[in-house]
Amino acid sequence: MFILVLFGYKQFKVFTIDCLGQTLIDCIWNTSLKEINKNLTLKEEQHTKDQKNASSKIKHNEARIKEISQQLGDEAEQAVKKDDKKATKAPPPKKGKEVVPNNPLEAERMDLQKENEKLTDAVAKYTDKLQKLRAAVEKFKGIIIKLKTDLNERFINGTLVLELFDKTGERKFIKTKLDLRANEFLSEKATYIIGYLQQTQQPDEEETPFALEYEGFIARTYDEDIGAVDEPLLAPQVKKDDKKKKGKK
């Protein structure tokens, strides 16, 4: 009897539900945090390496561009222009089509310049990714600190309450089922999301649910960002007050 649990960014693990709810939630939480930290460490190493490679490639391209410019020279460029004037004029390029230089060296220089524009953008994006990634690591460290070592204190006296949600965002109220067997209140082969509830200052306010996740931007490579869309594990919850307002309309 197993369930699939989602966490992080496109991360998941399979867990048995043939155990106590307390044992299950503790196992899910610890495993999820371990896998998240492991994945973020790997992503940081990968991003750092990709950024370094992009920077090295930029320098290599710049050296080649300089070399090409020296080969062409001002006199050679003027000679090419004169030859073009003597030759039969080619029909003007169609709108939207890029003009391809006749000289192979000029074409190579243009390609290198375009590549450097992309690489420069990649270096900047990786700087942003690494900053946000390190902030996410600190965030998860803070969550761990808030949750005390004793499991009962995690659920009762801590500022965070661990919780499981189904794919629609519905709570499973694990806090009240710690002494039950997990297969009594969880469905076999179902998919759940591990998260937590941030307790509010006022007793009459609703607790805010959060999935144990991070934004995909910090996990994806520069090329993987193209066309990617971040979708949160938990859909935005409608508060009771909002529901009442909708009902009055």
Brief overview:
This protein has helices at residues 21-86, 104-146, 151-156, 240-248; strands at residues 2-7, 11-16, 160-166, 191-198, 208-211. The protein is an alpha+beta fold.
Question: Keyphrases for this structure?
Answer:
249 residues, alpha+beta, five-stranded mixed beta sheet, 4 helices, 12% strand
Helices and strands in order, then pairings?
Blueprint (H helix, E strand, L loop, with lengths): L1 E6 L3 E6 L4 H66 L17 H43 L4 H6 L3 E7 L24 E8 L9 E4 L28 H9 L1
Parallel strand pairs: 1-4
Antiparallel strand pairs: 1-2, 3-4, 4-5
User: Can you write the helix and strand succession as a string?
Assistant: EEHHHEEEH
How would you characterize the largest beta sheet?
5 strands, mixed
Give the low-pLDDT segments.
Answer: 148-158
Overall outline: elongated
Q: What value does the Rg take, in angstroms?
A: 28 Å
Beta-strand fraction estimate: 5-15%
Q: Mean of residue pLDDT?
A: 83
Protein structure class: alpha+beta
Helix content: 40-55%
Distance between the termini: 45 Å
Q: How many β-strands, per DSSP? A: 5
Q: Helical element count?
A: 4
